[in-house]
Design brief:
heterodimer, A: alpha/beta, GMP Synthetase, Chain A, domain 3, 9-stranded mixed β-sheet, 4-stranded antiparallel β-sheet, 11 helices, B: alpha+beta, VC0802-like, 6-stranded antiparallel β-sheet, about 35% strand, globular
Chain lengths: ~425, ~140
């Protein structure tokens, strides 16, 4: 069985990786300068030209990109290729005002699927395997990312998409899936559903799972591994950099190897933007080294993270990133979906509520619970219970439309939402994910 | 001549009701009738009091509440008394959202409170059929 998908790159000596990166960054900065006026303008403002970038050491001279830049430049402002050469888009789970549309050329899809193929092989995958992909397909990168990687490895690929657990289990058992790809919470859910149906962990043919798109803990990993009888591997990525597969775990399960031949990682101080020394916790920043259509340089992920350059016993030489330890902004990841408290505020104001609310997050049976407490405004109050319940339902549906996931809305009396030092506590996260 | 019901939004948790009632009790105002509708997180306290204006002042901006017009029909405190009232309302195609009842001071005196979709018509048809209805003035005891 193959241990690596692309051994010559995955186990390349550090000097070789650096050589590849240095060569690619010079070309990439030139490509962006020539094709992305938005970023060229940022470079000009900072007084940097492609001539200043001779190696990855010079990346720190380049301006940062943030989510706000991607919004400002929506939809075509970051496009680095002719549209006729683009073959696909994906989009973030964010919603109105927050949506990011990423473009891909065939070259971009190929390098992305190389990344996910490496992750699948690292999880023990080969052409002998049956890969059940129950990440969502569509605009979300999860489904097609793992799907294309599984194709590249030569696995039999089950394009299940998310949901319909009955059917997932039926295919898993009947077609003897060996590798499961989904969010960790859905994996845990499938584990429980199997148990409820009377299956033992050894009844399925699964041997590994590749789980990502939301934060999860070591305890959750152990629980999933036990309930499904598998080894559970973490995978990391974001739409802005292509999707899952920017980094992935090997059999060591101690941090995710970043595909450094395609993505250059930095850890910065989120307040000053300064690059932090090796081993510091800070915000993870990615520079894509060879993407054509959506070539983001120094994109601030807002994930707080630490890099580990000590050699890994798996033989891979690429740097490892720890599970993100939190966020440097207020974004919440709920059931794999990115949620900003400001989005909830927008809906409340649109629906005639006061912006007094509180989000309470917890985990029950390894699935996120998402409760929103909202103070009722005087002009919305009715003596009729049916009216109030209708309001609750209608607010739930407006939030679902905005966020893409359903919260449970609880209407509460005015002035009952806890305020600390005069300022309302907007988010209570009891999930203990980090 | 409908009567005024006060509808108060309360959290469905210990202490919520006692606090609200304390305010009314301290002010020496008589609660003539009371009912509570409950949901998971909250409830709606519906009360008919001897002086609704005074209670509104007490609740002030401490509580979320509204004044609701309801119909209080007088009936005998005996079996079979409610039925003809409902027949009258039904024939007039009045929809009852909710209802509750209280007894008066006399032995033959009970009242049934209706929250209906059309207060004016409800009162008219009840009165036309010889069924008396209360006004706020009648509550001041």
């Amino acid at each position: 069985m193959k241990k690596y998908f692309q051994p010559e790159i995955e186990t390349a000596p550090r000097e070789k990786i650096l050589e590849i990166q240095n060569e690619k960054i010079v070309r990439q900065v030139k490509h962006v300068w020539d094709n992305v006026p938005y970023y060229r303008h940022l470079m000009e403002k900072q007084g940097v030209t492609p001539d200043d970038i001779k190696s990855v050491d010079d990346i720190k001279k380049l301006p940062f990109l943030s989510k706000a830049d991607l919004r400002d430049s929506y939809p075509y402002g970051m496009l680095g290729a002719d549209l006729k050469d683009c073959v696909r888009i994906h989009s973030t789970s964010g919603t109105t005002g927050k949506r990011v549309v990423a473009f891909y050329t065939q070259h971009d899809l190929d390098l992305w699927s190389d990344c996910t193929a490496r992750a699948i092989v690292a999880a023990g995958g080969s052409e002998e395997d049956v890969v059940q992909v129950c990440y969502g397909y569509g605009l979300f990168t999860g489904g097609s990312g793992l799907h294309d990687g599984a194709h590249k490895v030569g696995c039999l690929t089950l394009p299940m998409s998310s949901g319909n657990t009955e059917r997932q289990i039926q295919f898993m058992m009947d077609l003897e899936s060996t590798i499961l790809c989904c969010t960790p919470s859905y994996a845990a859910y499938i584990g429980e559903a199997l148990k409820e149906q009377g299956f033992q962990p050894e009844d399925n043919k699964l041997k590994a799972g590749i789980f990502g798109a939301e934060p999860w803990t070591e305890e959750m990993r152990q629980e999933i591994e036990k309930s499904l009888g598998i080894k559970a591997y973490d995978i990391y990525g974001l739409t802005e950099t292509s999707g899952p597969g920017v980094a992935y775990e090997c059999e060591e399960q101690k941090g995710m190897h970043i595909n450094e031949d395609h993505f250059y990682a930095e850890i910065i101080d989120p307040d000053t933007g300064e690059v932090l020394p090796e081993g510091s916790v800070g915000e993870l920043v990615f520079t894509s080294l060879d993407k054509e259509a959506f070539p983001l340089l120094r994109y601030r992920t807002r994930d707080l993270c630490v890099l580990n350059r000590t050699p890994c016993s798996c033989g891979r030489t690429h740097v490892r990133m720890a599970k993100p330890m939190g966020r440097s902004d207020d974004m919440l990841i709920i059931r794999g979906v990115n949620v900003f408290p400001s989005q909830i505020e927008t809906v409340l104001l649109n629906e005639g509520y006061t912006p007094n609310y509180q989000i309470v997050l917890d985990r029950e049976r390894n699935t996120d619970t998402f409760d929103v407490y909202v103070e009722v405004a005087p002009d919305q109050f009715s003596d009729l219970m049916s009216q109030i319940q209708k309001m609750e339902k209608s607010l739930e549906s407006a939030l679902r439309t905005m966020l893409g996931i359903s919260p449970k809305v609880h209407l509460v009396a005015p002035k009952t939402i806890t305020r600390s030092e005069g300022k309302a506590v907007r988010v209570i996260d009891k999930r203990k994910l980090h | 001549m409908a009567i005024t019901q006060l509808s108060v939004f309360l959290m469905n948790q210990p202490g919520a009701l006692v606090d609200a009632i304390k305010a009314i009790s301290d002010a020496n105002i008589n609660i003539r009738a009371l009912s509570i509708a409950e949901a998971n997180d909250f409830g709606i306290l519906r009360i008919i009091v001897s002086d609704s204006d005074a209670v509104c002042k007490l609740l002030g901006d401490q509580y979320l509440f509204s004044r609701t017009e309801v119909v209080a029909a007088k009936m005998g405190d005996r079996s079979g008394a409610l039925y003809p009232i409902l027949v009258v309302l039904n024939e007039a195609n009045i929809n009852i959202e909710y209802m509750y009842a209280f007894t008066g001071s006399g032995p033959e005196e009970a009242y049934v409170v209706f929250r209906v979709n059309d207060v004016k018509t409800a009162e008219e048809v009840l009165n036309a059929n010889g069924i008396a209805t209360l006004s706020d003035d009648n509550l001041k005891i």
